[in-house]
Amino acid sequence: GKTIVFISTYRYGKVRGIKPYNEVAITVPVIRGFTKVKLALHVIKMPVTSEENRQRGHYFWRLDKVLAQIDHHANGNAYTTTLNHAELSLPVPMDGRAKESVKAFTLLADSGDNITTATSLAKGAFSVRLFPRDAKLTLGNGPIAALLDSILVSKSPLFTQFGTGIESVFGLPDQRLTM
Predict the structure, then answer these.
(1) For 3, which DSSP code?
(2) pTM, full prediction
(3) What DSSP character marks residue 177?
């Protein structure tokens, strides 16, 4: 078996009140609720390039944010994100027909005895490719690569999604559920 993992990479160029930074969100989809089932993304690791953002993530959302080197570059028809020089590399195809949409999702962060939830909204033109043959996750050496290897993550994405000029909002925690 393989584990489904969402690896989302962000380049925040304009953020109100803080300097630009890069981020990689490594999340596992989970189903919440019994009567009204909802999909949420459980954050297992979230590398960032800014100490200020790392501290905000810990303080407000209890996210497992860690400082890392994150580079983004376009090469040919792909937009590649590299983490910690070669610990993780993921090319995402930039082609495909972009469709305007608004996406909403819930993030979960587990801090031991509490689960913090927060909602995120993203609006813009996204191009989605199913089973892209030209996108393969490469893992090198390091703690995040070891974590992904340990949960048997597939190196071939089920889908990729690419967008530029996306507007997003990340809310403060909605609620804290005691375990």
Answers:
(1) B
(2) 0.86
(3) E
Q: Which of 150, 152, 148 is nearest to 83 (CA)?
A: 148
Indicate the SS3 state at residue 146: helix
Count other C-beta atoms under 10 Å from residue 83's C-beta.
24
Quote the CA–CA distance of 117 and 119 in Å, as a whole number. 7
> C-alpha dihedral over 48, 53, 58, 61, to 10 degrees?
-100
The single-letter DSSP state of residue 77 is T
Report the half-sphere exposure of 58 (CA within 13 A, side-chain side).
12
The two three-digit tokens of residue 1, written as one number: 């078996």
CA 64 – CA 10 distance, rounded (Å) = 16
- CA-nearest of 155, 151, 160, 159 to 137 is 155
Residues 19 and 163: their CA atoms lie apart, in Å, by 21
Across-strand partners of 5?
none
- Strand 78-83 to 159-163 pairing: unpaired
Tens digits of residue pLDDT in 66-111: 999 999 999 888 999 999 999 999 999 998 788 998 888 888 888 7
